[in-house]
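input
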Amino acid sequence: MRGKPFGRGAEDFLFTLYQLSHGKPCRKEVRLVDISAALGVSRPAASRMAAYLSAHKFISKTHYSSVSFTAKGKKFAESVALRHRVTEVFLHDVLGLDGSELEDQAHALEHAMTERTARRLDAFLGMPKKCPHGKEICR
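output
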């Protein structure tokens, strides 16, 4: 994906949806209340972001106030996840950061990094299989 179509809030929403739905084959839909809790935002704020992302065809709103990815949205969320997780590996393994400093810095840098830079960082790191938290890095 070339440029970023939107800002941090949308990326955070998509990454959170990715984290809540990833690795759970029976859980393709995620409730907005779970997303709002994970993000620490109000349910109306999560609902507004869901409407925005739905209008841009990144997610589909489903029954019972749940959302799921479109193919376009899943691809973008995977890009955000790659940026976040390879940044974590770099900060942890190369710079020796850990704890909240690691998470805060990785979160800030994921938004500033392009997909191209993330892929180059991934290659530089030897394409690690997992982030420091043990989560799989999908490519």
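quick obs: The chain has six helices and three strands.
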